[in-house]
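Morning - copper (II) ion inputs below, output right after.
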Amino acid sequence: MNKSINLSRRRFFTQTGAGLLVGAAVPSWLQAMEGMSEMPKRAPNKASPNFHPDVEVDLLCKPSTLSILPGQPTQVLQYFATLVKGPNHTLTEIPGSYLGPILRFEKGQKIRINLRSELNEPTITHWHGLHVPALMDGHPVYAIDKGQVFVYEFEMLNRASMNIYHPHPHNSTASQVYRGLAGAILVTDQEEQKLGLPDGEYEIPIVIQDRQFDDNNQLVYASHMRDRMMGFYGDRILINGRPDFNLEVASRAYRFRILNGSNARIYKLAWDDNTPLTVIGTDGGLLESPVHKPYVMLAPGERLDVWADFSGRNVGSQLVLRSREFSGVLPKMAERMMGHAGRMHTNALPVGSDYPLFTVKVTRQVSDSPTLPNKLSTYSHYQISDTVNPNKPVPIAISEGPMSMLLNGRPYAYNDVLPSERIPVNSIQLMEIFHAHGGTGGHGADKSQTEEHKMGGMGMGMMRKGGMGGMMGGMNHSDTDNAQGEGHKMGGMGGEGMSGMGMMMSMAHPIHMHGQSFQILSRTIGATETEGYATVKDGFIEGGWKDTVLVMPGESVKVIKPFQDFKGVFMYHCHNLEHEDMGMMRDFSVE
Ligand code: C2O
Ligand code: CU
Ligand code: CU
């Protein structure tokens, strides 16, 4: 049994007071959560003598200290890499950053990575976005202990794209990422190289994260139930691990490779002078042609390839990339407590407020600049008729209870695969992500809900027996006294049943699927969610390859995803990392 989850659950029951209300009758969903969180152990994979790598990297993760803010250095966890074999440009350190070095790979390369842990807790590394065999995917079942080495061997099958490496251990992904373990992977291929896009010093990786520091410059992490339910939000923005990131550029075009590496924070990216953002790629690589957007939403785990053209700008001119105002991603009651519209500002950087990310300053005049290609890439668009299940989408039901965020009504448990989670290898699947109790957004739920998904109601039953008042009281208690008024109002919610509750709890979730990228087929929003939706809807990119998609409250998203080449267990989960660790994760068994 995993002690940490029990401890934290108990703690939040105590904090919220819900434990007292429930008394001896521990709900079955909670028993399931506690009992089923065991993770078997596997021997670490060893190098295969028959695998002849083109590139080999030793990757070490260990505690370290680093100067981030003026004064005392900060304790972090860090990836360190050394090149054993392969091109010199494979590794690029980011000076002064806790982030791991950028890994540059080429399509077709055979890659071996020797992960060695010096952490005092289990860890395993996942290659977010890469299409690799199940054994090489960093499933928590392969977590290693201090001193152990896990050898990854795979061929790069991905097209040119930006991907991520980060830990994926059971129940502690969020805290390990937060303390520093993450890095970018840039894959290139011939199609991309022919375009002559800005590279070298003109191609800038930009990893956006939020963090919170205490008076001694040490990282502060989630301690309240609220931080798990909503996700943890820092109160300052770091770019590439630096609190003071600014860019000095020449008057020409650049390529920004942007990654949201935050645990939970969602950004609405826009230039401060209202120049449209020119997007050339998404998670899974280049778009067919560039799109111009007033703003782009970027949720945790998502990537964005941006053409940033400073030609024609004078030396001395400045441009700020900001996160603009939006609403509707947090539960309505939390938005009132934490959001910019609320009376209380418990966080100096409320989710959905308007704040700067970094400044670009033109410092050099140059006379020529590459031009933006009209045509970037060629790929086919899936049709429903390409799928094996045009009338029966694979359901991914988001269920939001007061103390649980689940998928398909079940907390994560190894080897607990539902019939709908068994996927035939080499099939192309229609999938539908929807809110099982998402207020009025029942569109998808009504149509494709099956027996299993109704189990999402398990948590709610307990709620209706009187949990709500206790939960909210608890949240207020740990927040601020001013929240009492809200708490009393919320206390009345208990009897209102699903739809009222569903609406109060419903929030946005960046849903990520391991394995191959997918294409988004459609987004459908329930009628009463349109208010917040209007502030984000123009920021979604259509037509590209994705592995993470932001699903708004009341929204149903249909995607088409191939499951080719590899059998085995591949995770899907919310990339709000606190949600993931709470159990908002499941496995697909590709067989
Ligand atoms: Cu980036 Cu399973 O995660
Ligand atoms: Cu992933
Ligand atoms: Cu989530």
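Note: The pocket of copper (II) ion (ligand 2) is lined by residues 126, 128, 512, 514 (CB under 6 Å).

O.
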